[in-house]
Amino acid sequence: MKKQILQAVAAAALVGVVPMAAFAQNAAIVNGKAVPKARMDALAQQLTAAGKPVTPEMQPQLREEIVLREVFMQEAQKQGIDKTDDYKNQMELARQAVMIRALFENYKKNNPVTDAEVQAEYDKAVAASSAGAAPGGGKEYKARHILVKTEAEAKKIIADLKKGGNFEEIAKKQSTDKGSGAQGGDLGWANPAGLVPEFSTAMVALKKGETTQTPVKSEFGYHVIRLDDVRTAEAPKFPKLEEVKPQVVQQVQQQKLQKYQESLRAAAKVE
């Protein structure tokens, strides 16, 4: 009798151990189906990768999320959605996406960006910036203009200026460009590349202090232009490598990945 009691106690203990072990591995049991805790961990990793770190306080929310997903998935299976062609096609696309993402991550892991590559890319960017820093011969021009609607008006203004007329006063009274007109026609310092072609061509042809002798026609009307000054344009300061290194690393990484993708496509036999 004593032996039978001991066996019964042992059996009861064994039955109790199995559910506890299963519970440790599972996040929940939904309609009798176990939901692995690994799903919570995978969801937490996704959130963290998306820039939303998971705190211990968020564990109940994560558990509820995977429980809801399991509930919905079970219902979808009841309705036979997992048997449809659309579902199978979507699953194949999802499988491909996961595999491809893993492939590219594996490539980046095995082909890290080197300091030499970062330096080379940075130097190239600096050189390109310096080359394109100052279009228009590397100069800036300080000019004034008087803008009117007709060629006849512009010719009369040029004639008045030759007789000793004051450019600034005429600009204030007659220029249709009210912004610069209020400043005596002053356009401030400008790079020729930032002006309409007809205007910039006429402006750079002038010497310091000269005024155009014929009206300059553009999409805005007719201009009378006076060049007040010219200076060498200052190249913009380029940030130090330490300040932009993360962006440069990312750019080089993307370039390497792009070449890897192109090499795989080129090597593939497609019929």
TrEMBL record:
Claim: Isomerase is one of the keywords in the record: yes
Entries under InterPro entries matching the protein: PPIase_dom_sf, PPIase_PpiC, PrsA_foldase, Trigger_fact/SurA_dom_sf
Reactions it catalyzes: [protein]-peptidylproline (omega=180) = [protein]-peptidylproline (omega=0)
Top-level taxon of origin: Bacteria
The PpiC domain, residue ranges: 138-229
Keywords: Isomerase, Rotamase, Signal
Protein name: peptidylprolyl isomerase
GO molecular function, one term: peptidyl-prolyl cis-trans isomerase activity
Membrane-spanning intervals of the chain: none
EC number in record: 5.2.1.8
Signal peptide start and end residues: 1-24
Native source species: Variovorax robiniae
Coiled-coil ranges from the UniProt annotation: none
Enzyme class name: isomerase
Family the UniProt entry places it in: Belongs to the PpiC/parvulin rotamase family.
